[in-house]
C-alpha cells in the first residue's frame, strides 16, 4: 500500500512504551522505572516511553513512520510473583488498549504477559487478542531465571498457535552466569557489552536456539515467533549450525525450522550487508521494518532504508506488506 507522493505506508513493529503502574512496581522492587530505560544511559528515555501522544507522534511524522506496533520495554513484570504479575499485566494491557483506541490510525499493540503464571499468561494473550484487538505478545529474556523453551511455558505458545498470532521474543537482562564468564571483566570500560553490543544478542539467540532444540515447533507446527535485531545473528550462522548439529546422534532440521517459523525485524540494526544476508537466508517475506524507538532514533532507520539496494516491491513488503499479512492488519487502515 502506498500513500501520497508514492511514499510507502510505514509500519514499525518493535517500538516500546512503559506503563506507569509497572514502573511503580519496578521502583518498589528496588529498580529505577522503565527497566531497560534505566540501564540504557540514554537521556530522557523514560519520558519518551511514557508519552504516547506527544513527542512520539511528532517524531513519527517527521521521520515518515505511519504506524507503530507498541510493546512494553523490558521490566520487572517477569520477575514478580504470579499474582502480582497477572494483576499488573491485565491492567497494563487495558490501559494500552485505551491509548491505542485514541489513535488507531497510528498505533497497534503487542500484549504484556504475566509469564510467572503460564496458564494465566495464555488466558491473558487470548483476552488481549480476542477482546482488545492486540496482534500478539512480547516476552523478554527469561522468567524467574528460566528460558521460555521450558515446557512450563508451552501453554503460552499453544494458545498463540490456536489464535494464529506471533510471540515476539525480545532481549531481557542477560543470564548472570554468562555475563560473569564471557565479559564481566570488561563491563566497567564497555557497559554496552551487557546490552545491545553483545549480551542481548547472544542471550536472545540462545533462547531461540533452545526453542528449536526443545521440540516446541514439532509440538506446535503453526507457531510463529518474531526476533528483532535481524534475528540476533542467527541468519548468518544457520548453515553452520545446521551442519554441525546434525553430526550428532539426533537429526534436526534446524535451518528449515528457523526459516519456517521465525520472522525477523530490523530493530536497531541498520546494516545493509547484514540485511542482505538475512534476506538470502530467510527470504524477503519474513523480514519486517522496525526501529526500536526510543532506544534507537526513527530518522536513521528511515534514511538507511532509502539506501538499501532492494526493489520498490521488496521495500514495500518490509515497510508494510509483511506486517499486514503476519499481524492481519487491514490493507487500507490499520487499527489497534
> How many distinct folded domains?
1
Helix/strand structural class: alpha/beta
CATH fold naming:
TIM Barrel
Largest sheet: 6 strands, parallel
Give the strand content: 5-15%
Large-scale geometry: globular
Count of alpha/pi helices: 16
Strand order of the biggest β-sheet: 4-5-6-7-8-9
**What level of helicity do the residues show?**
40-55%
N→C terminal distance: 18 Å
What is the overall pLDDT average?
Answer: 94
| CATH architectural grouping | Alpha-Beta Barrel
What order do the SSEs take from the amino end to the carboxyl end, as H and E? EHHHHEHEEHEHEHHHEHHHEHEHH
**CATH class type:** Alpha Beta
Question: Mind telling me the CATH superfamily name?
Answer: Metal-dependent hydrolases
Amino acid at each position: 500500500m502506498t500513500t501520497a507522493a508514492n511514499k510507502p505506508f510505514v509500519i514499525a513493529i518493535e517500538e516500546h512504551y512503559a506503563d506507569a503502574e509497572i514502573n511503580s512496581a519496578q521502583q518498589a522492587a528496588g529498580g529505577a522505572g522503565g527497566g531497560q530505560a534505566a540501564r540504557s544511559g540514554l537521556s530522557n528515555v523514560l519520558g519518551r516511553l511514557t508519552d504516547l501522544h506527544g513527542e512520539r507522534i511528532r517524531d513519527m511524522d517527521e521521520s515518515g513512520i505511519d504506524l507503530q506496533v507498541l510493546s512494553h520495554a523490558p521490566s520487572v513484570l517477569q520477575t514478580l510473583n504470579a499474582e502480582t504479575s497477572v494483576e499488573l499485566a491485565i491492567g497494563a494491557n487495558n490501559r494500552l488498549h485505551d491509548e491505542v483506541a485514541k489513535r488507531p490510525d497510528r498505533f497497534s499493540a503487542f500484549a504484556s504477559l504475566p509469564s510467572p503464571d503460564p496458564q494465566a499468561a495464555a488466558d491473558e494473550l487470548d483476552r488481549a487478542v480476542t477482546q482488545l484487538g492486540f496482534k500478539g505478545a512480547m516476552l523478554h529474556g527469561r522468567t524467574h531465571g528460566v528460558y521460555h523453551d521450558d515446557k512450563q511455558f508451552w501453554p503460552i505458545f499453544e494458545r498463540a498457535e490456536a489464535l494464529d498470532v506471533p510471540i515476539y521474543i525480545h532481549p531481557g537482562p542477560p543470564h548472570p552466569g554468562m555475563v560473569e564468564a564471557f565479559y564481566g571483566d570488561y563491563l566497567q570500560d564497555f557497559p554496552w557489552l551487557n546490552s545491545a553490543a553483545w549480551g542481548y544478542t547472544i542471550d536472545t539467540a540462545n533462547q531461540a536456539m533452545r526453542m528449536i532444540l526443545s521440540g516446541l515447533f514439532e509440538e506446535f507446527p503453526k507457531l510463529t515467533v518474531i526476533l528483532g535485531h535481524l534475528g540476533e545473528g542467527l541468519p548468518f550462522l544457520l548453515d553452520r549450525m545446521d551442519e554441525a548439529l546434525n553430526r550428532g546422534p539426533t537429526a534436526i532440521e534446524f535451518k528449515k525450522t528457523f526459516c519456517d517459523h521465525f520472522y525477523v525485524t530490523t530493530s536497531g540494526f541498520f546494516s545493509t550487508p547484514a540485511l542482505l544476508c538475512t534476506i538470502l537466508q530467510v527470504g524477503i517475506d519474513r523480514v519486517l521494518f522496525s526501529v526500536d524507538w526510543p532506544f534507537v532514533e526513527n530518522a536513521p532507520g528511515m534514511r538507511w532504508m532509502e539506501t538499501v539496494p532492494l526493489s520498490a516491491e521488496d521495500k514495500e513488503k518490509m515497510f508494510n506488506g509483511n506486517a499486514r499479512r503476519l499481524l492481519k492488519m487491514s490493507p487500507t487502515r490499520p487499527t489497534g
